[in-house]
Amino acid sequence: MRKLIGTCNHVAQYDLRFFKGRIFAVSDLHGHYDLLHEALRNAGFDSIRDKLFVLGDWCDRGPDSRYVLDYVNEPWVESLRGNHCQMFIDGFESHWHPNNRSVLTLKAHGGDWIWNSGLTDLDKILIHEAFSSMPIGMELLLPSGHKLGMIHAEVPYNDWNKWLNITKAELEWDGMATAQWARTWYSKRYQGEVKGVDLVLVGHTPTDSNNVEQYGNMVFIDGGSFFSGKINLVEINDDWVRRRLCL
What we know:
Elements: E1 2-5, E2 11-15, E3 23-26, H1 33-43, E4 51-54, E5 77-79, H2 83-93, H3 101-108, H4 113-116, H5 121-132, E6 137-141, E7 147-151, H6 160-164, H7 168-181, H8 184-187, E8 199-202, E9 213-215, E10 218-220, H9 225-228, E11 234-235, H10 238-246
Parallel strand pairs: 2-6, 3-4, 4-5, 7-8, 8-10
Antiparallel strand pairs: 1-2, 3-11, 6-7, 9-10
Helix pairs in contact: 2-3, 2-5
C-alpha cells in the first residue's frame, strides 16, 4: 500500500483505491494527545480497519510531548515530517549544541520538554529515528479515483509533479523550507490551484477560525491546538472530496 516516490524518495504514496476502512487526517497535535483520543473516540475510529494520516508536528508546546513514541509507530498511523519534527532531527544531529539554530528555535517554540521531561538518551535516539523515517509529503490514491496530496506547509512550485521531480540540490536549498515552513498561500488567501493533484491537505498555519478552511484546492486543517485547545480530525471519504472539489 505504501511506497516512496519522487526523485529524492521524499514522498510516500498510499494506494487506497481498494481500501475498505475509513481514512482520517489530523495535523499539528503538539503533544495534545488527549484531544486526539477524544476526537478518535467520537468518530468511532477502528484501529484495526481505519487509517490516520498525520501532517506533522507531533510535539512541542503541548503537555504530553514526551509520550510521542507511544503514537508515531502505531500500525494505524502514517505521518509526514513537519517543521518541529525537522528541528528535533537537526538538534539531535548537532548533538544539542546550545548555539545550533534549530536548538535555539526549538527552545523558543515549546521544545523545553526535550530537556526537562525525563527523556532518556535512548528515547531521543528513537524519536530521531521515527521522525527521520517520515516523508516530507504524502500522496493518497483514493477509492473515489482522486489524488490527494498532503504536506505540512506548502507545495513547492505550486505543482505536485514538479515537487515530485525536485532535484536533491533544490530540495535542500529551498524545497524543504517551503514544504515545512511556508505560509504565503494562507496569508494571501490565494484562490489558485496546485497543479497535478485534485486537493492538497496542509497543516502548519492555524486558521483564523480554528476550523477547516479552503482556498483554491488547498485545505487547511490546523486548529491551533496549543492555544485554542482544538484539533480538526477530518474524515476523507467520497462525500468530503466531492464537497471540497465544488468549493
